[in-house]
Design goal:
The protein is about 50% helix and about 10% strand. With about 230 residues, the chain is an alpha+beta fold. It folds into 2 domains: about 80 residues, Glutaredoxin; about 120 residues, Up-down Bundle (Glutathione S-transferase Yfyf (Class Pi), Chain A, domain 2).
Length: about 230
Amino acid sequence: MAKDMTLLWGFGSPPCWRTMIALEEKNLQGYNQKLLSFEKGEHKSKEVMDINPRGQLPTFKHGDKILNDSYAACMYLESQFKSQGTQLIPESAAEQALMYQRMFEIPTFQEKLYYVAYYEYFVPEGERHDSALKRNKEALTAELQLWENYLQKMETGSYLAGKKFTMADVVGFPVVACAFRNGLSEERYPKLTEYYNLVKERPSVEAIWSKDWQKNPQGTDKLKDL
């Protein structure tokens, strides 16, 4: 089955990571994959644009079916291979409700993280202002505290939506990992740290964990003061 799948992905991208984690959790190893360079603009190449006119990564194909959004790809994989590998969507209504709530809060977390960690990438030099970056940091700090509080209310050893690893973790862990890569304080966010250390040991994460991230898990110190 995995032989009919192709993933075009880019290094250090949480959306790419979540798609790869979903593939691993559903025991779909052996898919075709190609690493492209954001720095070289390969995500805007004809190879990508022909199947993803937005020029973004990841780009995922299963046979003749194309999914260019990481959430869509993850949900598709769970739907098509529900009985295979890890069950990523719980059966009970209560567990599902919390999973979906956390899952769809992640894009807000990701956006606020990006506008601090990658401020220079997203904002042209002439449009950058210290006051704007300060506001972005304040917004991210509030967001981080929100997630810290969510985890504080749960049992020790919990995932984002409870005691089971779910789709909320597939989409959310890469964002948390990106925060720690950019210098997030373990002392100020102990519950997020606990969660990060829990999930990074999963075989699905270890299987796709970049060797560079293993050797240098803190890529920058942009979040060290938050």
